[in-house]
Design brief:
This protein is mainly alpha-helical. The chain has helices at about 1-10, 15-55, 65-85, 95-125, 130-165, 180-199. Helix 2 packs antiparallel against helix 3 (about 65-85) and helix 2 (about 15-55) packs antiparallel against helix 5. The radius of gyration is 23 Å and the shape is elongated.
Protein backbone atom coordinates (compact mmCIF):
# COMPACT_ATOMS: atom_id res chain seq x y z
CA UNK A 1 0.00 0.00 0.00
CA UNK A 2 2.91 2.35 0.86
CA UNK A 3 4.52 1.56 -2.49
CA UNK A 4 1.24 2.36 -4.25
CA UNK A 5 1.04 5.69 -2.42
CA UNK A 6 4.56 6.59 -3.49
CA UNK A 7 3.77 5.56 -7.03
CA UNK A 8 0.66 7.75 -6.97
CA UNK A 9 2.67 10.71 -5.74
CA UNK A 10 5.16 10.18 -8.55
CA UNK A 11 2.30 10.00 -11.07
CA UNK A 12 0.97 13.41 -10.01
CA UNK A 13 2.64 16.50 -11.42
CA UNK A 14 4.18 18.86 -8.91
CA UNK A 15 3.15 22.53 -8.65
CA UNK A 16 6.32 23.64 -10.40
CA UNK A 17 5.83 21.10 -13.20
CA UNK A 18 2.26 22.28 -13.79
CA UNK A 19 3.41 25.89 -14.07
CA UNK A 20 6.28 24.88 -16.36
CA UNK A 21 3.77 23.16 -18.67
CA UNK A 22 1.71 26.38 -18.72
CA UNK A 23 4.86 28.30 -19.74
CA UNK A 24 5.43 25.75 -22.51
CA UNK A 25 1.83 26.17 -23.74
CA UNK A 26 2.18 29.98 -23.78
CA UNK A 27 5.45 29.68 -25.69
CA UNK A 28 3.90 27.32 -28.26
CA UNK A 29 0.88 29.61 -28.75
CA UNK A 30 3.03 32.71 -29.11
CA UNK A 31 5.41 31.02 -31.57
CA UNK A 32 2.41 30.06 -33.72
CA UNK A 33 1.12 33.64 -33.46
CA UNK A 34 4.58 34.96 -34.41
CA UNK A 35 4.58 32.66 -37.45
CA UNK A 36 1.25 34.10 -38.63
CA UNK A 37 2.56 37.64 -38.01
CA UNK A 38 5.72 36.80 -40.01
CA UNK A 39 3.53 35.68 -42.91
CA UNK A 40 1.59 38.98 -42.77
CA UNK A 41 4.80 41.03 -42.53
CA UNK A 42 6.25 39.18 -45.54
CA UNK A 43 3.12 39.96 -47.56
CA UNK A 44 3.26 43.64 -46.54
CA UNK A 45 6.94 43.89 -47.53
CA UNK A 46 6.34 42.23 -50.91
CA UNK A 47 3.36 44.55 -51.55
CA UNK A 48 5.42 47.64 -50.70
CA UNK A 49 8.23 46.54 -53.03
CA UNK A 50 5.84 45.76 -55.91
CA UNK A 51 4.15 49.15 -55.54
CA UNK A 52 7.50 50.91 -55.26
CA UNK A 53 9.04 49.37 -58.39
CA UNK A 54 6.00 48.64 -60.58
CA UNK A 55 2.98 50.80 -59.75
CA UNK A 56 4.19 54.04 -58.11
CA UNK A 57 7.75 54.00 -59.45
CA UNK A 58 7.85 57.80 -59.46
CA UNK A 59 7.17 57.98 -55.70
CA UNK A 60 10.22 58.64 -53.57
CA UNK A 61 9.33 56.87 -50.34
CA UNK A 62 11.21 55.10 -47.56
CA UNK A 63 8.14 53.18 -46.36
CA UNK A 64 9.65 49.96 -47.67
CA UNK A 65 12.57 50.37 -45.21
CA UNK A 66 10.14 50.27 -42.28
CA UNK A 67 8.46 47.20 -43.81
CA UNK A 68 11.88 45.55 -44.04
CA UNK A 69 12.65 46.37 -40.38
CA UNK A 70 9.26 44.91 -39.35
CA UNK A 71 9.96 41.78 -41.41
CA UNK A 72 13.36 41.34 -39.71
CA UNK A 73 11.77 41.84 -36.27
CA UNK A 74 9.08 39.27 -37.03
CA UNK A 75 11.66 36.81 -38.33
CA UNK A 76 13.74 37.32 -35.17
CA UNK A 77 10.62 36.88 -33.01
CA UNK A 78 9.58 33.64 -34.74
CA UNK A 79 13.14 32.25 -34.76
CA UNK A 80 13.60 32.96 -31.03
CA UNK A 81 10.32 31.17 -30.29
CA UNK A 82 11.33 28.11 -32.31
CA UNK A 83 14.81 27.95 -30.76
CA UNK A 84 13.32 28.33 -27.27
CA UNK A 85 10.85 25.49 -27.89
CA UNK A 86 13.58 23.21 -29.26
CA UNK A 87 16.09 23.90 -26.48
CA UNK A 88 13.61 24.02 -23.59
CA UNK A 89 10.30 22.36 -24.58
CA UNK A 90 9.11 22.69 -20.95
CA UNK A 91 10.89 25.81 -19.61
CA UNK A 92 11.53 26.50 -15.96
CA UNK A 93 10.00 29.52 -14.23
CA UNK A 94 13.36 31.33 -14.10
CA UNK A 95 14.10 30.54 -17.75
CA UNK A 96 10.68 31.68 -18.92
CA UNK A 97 11.16 35.13 -17.35
CA UNK A 98 13.88 35.78 -19.95
CA UNK A 99 11.40 34.84 -22.71
CA UNK A 100 8.77 37.20 -21.28
CA UNK A 101 11.17 40.17 -21.09
CA UNK A 102 12.65 39.45 -24.54
CA UNK A 103 9.20 39.31 -26.15
CA UNK A 104 8.09 42.51 -24.40
CA UNK A 105 11.14 44.34 -25.78
CA UNK A 106 10.48 43.02 -29.33
CA UNK A 107 6.80 44.00 -29.03
CA UNK A 108 7.76 47.56 -27.97
CA UNK A 109 9.98 47.88 -31.06
CA UNK A 110 7.06 46.63 -33.19
CA UNK A 111 4.84 49.31 -31.66
CA UNK A 112 7.41 51.99 -32.57
CA UNK A 113 7.55 50.67 -36.15
CA UNK A 114 3.74 50.75 -36.32
CA UNK A 115 3.73 54.40 -35.24
CA UNK A 116 6.38 55.26 -37.85
CA UNK A 117 4.36 53.48 -40.56
CA UNK A 118 1.19 55.38 -39.59
CA UNK A 119 3.01 58.73 -39.71
CA UNK A 120 4.63 57.87 -43.06
CA UNK A 121 1.28 56.73 -44.43
CA UNK A 122 -0.37 60.03 -43.45
CA UNK A 123 2.46 61.97 -45.13
CA UNK A 124 2.49 59.86 -48.32
CA UNK A 125 -1.27 59.77 -48.76
CA UNK A 126 -1.23 63.54 -49.20
CA UNK A 127 1.15 63.23 -52.17
CA UNK A 128 -0.45 62.50 -55.51
CA UNK A 129 2.32 60.18 -56.76
CA UNK A 130 2.44 58.19 -53.50
CA UNK A 131 -1.23 57.48 -52.80
CA UNK A 132 -0.93 53.68 -53.03
CA UNK A 133 2.29 53.67 -51.00
CA UNK A 134 0.52 55.71 -48.34
CA UNK A 135 -2.48 53.36 -48.21
CA UNK A 136 -0.20 50.30 -47.82
CA UNK A 137 1.79 52.07 -45.09
CA UNK A 138 -1.40 53.02 -43.22
CA UNK A 139 -2.90 49.53 -43.44
CA UNK A 140 0.40 47.93 -42.39
CA UNK A 141 0.72 50.39 -39.51
CA UNK A 142 -2.79 49.72 -38.25
CA UNK A 143 -2.33 45.93 -38.43
CA UNK A 144 1.09 46.03 -36.76
CA UNK A 145 -0.17 48.45 -34.10
CA UNK A 146 -3.13 46.21 -33.29
CA UNK A 147 -0.82 43.19 -33.04
CA UNK A 148 1.62 45.10 -30.80
CA UNK A 149 -1.16 46.21 -28.42
CA UNK A 150 -2.57 42.67 -28.31
CA UNK A 151 0.85 41.12 -27.68
CA UNK A 152 1.89 43.56 -24.95
CA UNK A 153 -1.43 42.86 -23.16
CA UNK A 154 -0.78 39.10 -23.43
CA UNK A 155 2.76 39.39 -22.09
CA UNK A 156 1.73 41.70 -19.24
CA UNK A 157 -0.88 39.11 -18.24
CA UNK A 158 1.70 36.32 -18.49
CA UNK A 159 4.12 38.38 -16.38
CA UNK A 160 1.41 38.73 -13.71
CA UNK A 161 0.91 34.94 -13.80
CA UNK A 162 4.67 34.47 -13.51
CA UNK A 163 4.70 36.67 -10.39
CA UNK A 164 1.99 34.61 -8.63
CA UNK A 165 3.42 31.27 -9.80
CA UNK A 166 5.91 31.23 -6.92
CA UNK A 167 3.16 31.04 -4.31
CA UNK A 168 -0.05 29.93 -6.06
CA UNK A 169 -0.64 26.31 -7.11
CA UNK A 170 -2.27 25.15 -10.33
CA UNK A 171 -5.38 23.01 -9.59
CA UNK A 172 -4.67 19.26 -9.82
CA UNK A 173 -7.69 18.65 -12.09
CA UNK A 174 -5.79 20.38 -14.90
CA UNK A 175 -3.56 17.29 -15.18
CA UNK A 176 -6.16 15.47 -17.26
CA UNK A 177 -5.80 18.12 -19.99
CA UNK A 178 -2.02 17.64 -20.19
CA UNK A 179 -0.87 15.22 -22.95
CA UNK A 180 0.64 12.02 -21.53
CA UNK A 181 3.89 12.53 -23.42
CA UNK A 182 4.39 15.90 -21.69
CA UNK A 183 3.78 14.25 -18.31
CA UNK A 184 6.34 11.55 -19.11
CA UNK A 185 8.94 14.20 -20.02
CA UNK A 186 8.19 16.08 -16.78
CA UNK A 187 8.67 12.91 -14.71
CA UNK A 188 11.92 12.10 -16.54
CA UNK A 189 13.19 15.57 -15.70
CA UNK A 190 12.15 15.06 -12.07
CA UNK A 191 14.02 11.72 -11.88
CA UNK A 192 17.09 13.34 -13.46
CA UNK A 193 17.04 16.08 -10.81
CA UNK A 194 16.77 13.46 -8.05
CA UNK A 195 19.74 11.55 -9.41
CA UNK A 196 21.80 14.77 -9.68
CA UNK A 197 20.74 15.75 -6.16
CA UNK A 198 21.72 12.35 -4.77
CA UNK A 199 25.11 12.55 -6.51
Amino acid sequence: HGTHGTHGADEDLTREERWNIIWAAVNAYYTLDAGIALFIATGAFIASMVVRHVVDSTCESSAWVVSLVVLILRLLDFSCGCISMLRHPVPSRAGFLCDILKNMVITCFQGICALVQLILGCVLIGQEDCLLNGIIALVSGFVLGFQAIEEICVWMTVLCLWCVAGTSPVPGWTDKWVPERVKVEARKHRQKQRVEGAA
